[in-house]
Write a structure and sequence with these properties.
6-stranded mixed beta sheet, alpha/beta, 20 helices, elongated, single chain
């Protein structure tokens, strides 16, 4: 869906976002599609509503022995069938387009926003909530949009039929125009319990998704400690909670469906009974009686469609609230109001809080123990410096540089970097034109032997978090990925902590040679890195 050729529009969301405003913003982004669905829905529903009236006229023609009139009304009935078939096709096209627009726009909106959130997402919400939004909530929102055309068509058809009945028999027309809305209103008390139960089901689904994600991510550890059975039981218990909440939702929907049949059915019975009495009194003819019976039977359709629309809107509102909850999360780091561009060429890096300075074009090793990680995060602007302190990149305060530019020119690689499932070549950052090639990066990280051992080489398909390789191999591949980016400033946090001394010695020499002339900061206490460093920072003192 994310790569589909469908032209998803840019959504203009209000500052104070609610579920209703989110859904309306999406509809406003595609007004022509909504209009097409409404028009085709009307032209698809009207023939069904008008057909009983046409049949009634045909019955009157038979009673009068008027063959010509009979043929005329027969041709009109056939024409209504053709019109309904043609516009039914267009209605399906427009309704499915609305479904794609609702579901796809929601997915793109959530995906873009969660990408901007970065690490804040893990702290602010659960994995299960995000999975539920992108798996079930988008479908609920799509269903809310899909029913729009049929709902508009049903309302228009009901009004047209009611007016037609009112002109033929005021009594029957009033019964229809009053009885059907009352039937719809009678369904109202069932909607609030349904919405509450769907909200509970949504929360339970989020929890079971989170539990499933945790089990999958820790499957290797669970097997090692023999915890598979216990977590399987926990997952089964959570699944049963979801099942029970689904049963409660199904019970509410069953009552809703029953009411959608019974209440308009009572209106149909009333119209048929009154029509029969009027026909016996001679007030209306046999043809009109047939027409009124057919129309009263048709009135079940608008009520059924209204019930479906309300149920879909209930589910869509619950889903939209969850989406709004995600969209309300804000990144930890604010974008500058007026970004300042970084200077071209080599960049130095200064953290005024710790006094650490990385000279431009030099390899600096920072040996400050427990302080190192916090300094690295500040220098890469993963966090902001303390009050009154700053991080300067090429003389420009880091918080005044656009994050996109800062991330492109200052890269921070640490051992917690995540690997996704996919082709290994796609996981390794492509080299910039004229910069470091992938082969060079793999050689510098001493990772070429890992590639040679894989059946498909760099085209090997690896699983989530790179479970096919060991911790030391994954660390070397992560280093190769960081080197291949060929950043102007590269910060490495303990890049060789999981390899043996001989491998580390090769890596330090090769990285020093590969990054010669570019600013590189290595946070490590290893003497092998200190040996190849141009500058070493220890306890705020610099030794050349």
């Amino acid at each position: 869906m994310l790569s589909a050729p469908y032209p998803f529009p840019d959504l203009r969301l209000p500052e104070r976002l609610t579920a209703g405003r989110l859904l309306l913003s999406m509809l406003r982004a595609r007004p022509w599609l909504v209009a097409v669905a409404a028009v085709t829905g009307t032209l698809w529903t009207l023939p069904s509503a008008l057909l009983p009236l046409v049949v009634g006229r045909g019955v009157d023609a038979i009673a009068a022995g008027d063959t010509g009139a009979l043929w005329k009304w027969a041709l009109v009935a056939a024409g209504l069938g053709v019109v309904q078939a043609g516009f039914g096709t267009w209605l399906h096209f427009a309704s499915y387009g609305l479904w794609i627009h609702g579901a796809g726009s929601t997915q793109r909106l959530v995906t873009s926003h969660t990408t901007r959130l970065g690490a804040v997402l893990r702290e602010a919400t659960t994995t299960g909530n995000v999975v539920a939004v992108t798996s079930s909530d988008i479908n609920w929102i799509g269903n809310t949009f899909e029913v729009i055309g049929r709902t508009v068509g049903s309302v228009v058809a009901f009004v047209v039929v009611g007016v037609a009945m009112l002109s033929s028999s005021p009594l029957l027309g009033v019964v229809a125009l009053v009885g059907v809305p009352l039937a719809v209103l009678g369904i109202g008390p069932l909607l609030r319990p349904l919405q509450k139960r769907k909200a509970v089901q949504r929360e339970n689904l989020s929890e079971v998704n989170a539990l499933g994600a945790d089990i999958v991510s820790g499957l290797r550890i669970l097997r090692g400690v023999g915890g598979e059975r216990r977590f399987l039981q926990r997952f089964r218990t959570a699944s049963q909670v979801v099942r029970r909440s689904g049963v409660e939702v199904g019970r509410s929907e069953a009552w809703l469906a029953a009411a959608a049949i019974v209440l308009p059915g009572l209106v149909t019975v009333a119209i048929t009974w009154l029509g029969a009495r009027l026909a016996l009194d001679g007030t209306i003819g046999v043809g009109e009686l047939v027409a009124f019976y057919g129309v009263s039977a048709f009135l079940v359709v608008p009520v059924d469609t209204a019930t479906e629309a309300v149920s879909s809107l209930s589910s869509g509102t619950v889903a939209a609230r969850k989406v709004c909850g995600l969209l309300a999360l804000r990144p930890k780091l604010a974008e500058p109001a007026s970004p300042v561009p970084l200077p071209e060429g080599r960049l130095d890096l200064v953290d005024t809080e710790s006094g650490v300075r990385a000279a431009p074009g030099r390899l600096t090793v920072v040996d400050l123990g427990a302080e190192a990680e916090a300094i690295a995060e500040r220098m890469a602007r993963f966090t902001d410096a303390g009050e009154g302190e700053r991080v300067l990149v090429g003389g420009v305060p880091a918080d005044q540089v656009a994050l996109a530019e800062l991330r492109a020119r200052v890269v921070f690689a640490h051992n917690q970097d995540i690997w996704f499932s996919g082709v290994l070549r796609d996981q390794l950052a492509p080299a910039r034109p004229g910069g470091v090639g992938l082969t060079e990066a793999l050689y510098a990280a001493d990772a070429d032997d890992i590639i040679e051992a894989l059946p498909e080489g760099v085209d090997e398909l690896i699983g989530e978090r790179g479970r096919e390789v060991s911790g030391g191999q994954r660390q070397r591949l992560s280093l190769a990925r960081a080197l291949a980016v060929d950043a102007d400033v590269l910060l490495l946090d303990e890049p060789t902590s999981a390899v043996d001394a001989h491998t580390e010695a090769r890596i330090t020499e090769r990285v020093a040679e590969l990054r010669r002339g570019r600013t590189t900061v290595v946070f490590s206490q290893s003497p092998l890195w200190i040996h190849v460093a141009d500058e070493v920072v220890r306890a705020k003192a610099v030794t050349v």
